[in-house]
Amino acid sequence: MDSLSGIEKFHYHRSRLEYHSCFYVAVKLNQAPDNASLRSALEVTISKFPLLYSNAFTNGGNVTLIPLKNTIMLQDVLKPVDFNSLDESFNNYVFNNVAFDYEVDKPLWKILVLKDRRTLVLCTDHLIMDGMSTVAFWKSVIAGLNNSDLLGAPDSGPVFTPKAGLCKVQQHPYDQVPFSVLGLLLWVFVRLMVLLDFANLGLIEKVFIPHLASKDLKFKNYRFPQGLLDSAGGIRNDNCQLNLHISSPKMRLLLKNCKLHKVSFTSLLSAVAAHALQSISSTQVEGSCIKISVPMNARGDVQKILEGTPNSSEFGNFIKSGEFSRDLSKLTELWGTAKSLDEEMASQRYSNLSIQMTKLLNLIDVENFVQGKVNAPYPGSTFEITNLGYQTFDCGADDKYFVEDAFFNEPQGINDVFTFAVVSTPVGGLNCWLSYPKELQTDLQPAIAYMQKILDGLSSET
Length: 462
What we know:
By secondary structure, the chain is an alpha+beta fold. Helix content is 35%, strand content 21%.
């Protein structure tokens, strides 16, 4: 690796400036694994993915991901915590207390173990993983647990030992994606803006961090960045947290409804959230246009463009941003909204324009870009929905270890007012953590009640 790519620089500076601590994906297993089996499974998993044994170091003026020089012991990445379940207090504990330092010989991830010893919470710096990377991590670990036969093996010891000839993190594939004609035009445009920016015209901020117009929806009781930052300038991470859970049988009915109307669950959830916001009193908001952010998995795009092997993009950050706008005053029928959003999502899913835009981050000062988002008068999106989809984690009831439930969540962020973090499993059904600022606890209650009522109705027998 020569240097971090644009998308990696964004995550690096956001974490370094302490505007993002970590995110997590947790699995609840059918039984508690012993430490000897976990140690063996982690050792195999770490050996497969160089990002798991690397940290960010400044090298020759550039920041790169370099393998660690120190041994990683099991206790370095496995930490028991005094919690019985994943609830609001646990979530805010994680996002306030679990963060990772750069420029040190320590990994950028760890696993928290709840008191039941069955619930394992992978916390990671966003620099080295996206949501689908955590799925790959857990698939590998659970496969290792199911293949282990370690009677009498030690329950502590190293899970990584540095040695010569270790595989290193490669340059991010986004940097190998060629510019399209539109991408080249954007490249010329941004280069011109960078040159003009020396005249302090502020063009970069105006284009990359557009301010909301008067028509855009803003909550009167949520002031930015006061609602995001504490007195010391760090993220507050004191959001209200609600799990919109749908059991497995009900989820099958809900997906059947989605299939009948030819929309994805992400499109439906976006539509439900949009219609729910109509129930908020007009005295509590300004404007009526909302902006919806939906991060999308770009692995298929990269493999198609570069004709690489699937493993080349299995681990790392392969996200592209989907952006959608709706005027609440013009929404009428729920499934109609879901259908129109689904069509737009499909269009953006098969477009690599977002990757082209991400490559432009290599041209600008990314640290200033991140700081500019915090200094903006309001977040760029009303809400974000990140859906990791339906995951079996390549295991089932016939295996010694299988996943009974899974959970995904992210900290209070600089891009959105509130967030939905979604993952589904065959046994546990759907868990969707809704995270929203304390200032909106009262204002959002009608919207939350609407979402719960609609999702329950759509997942019930008629």
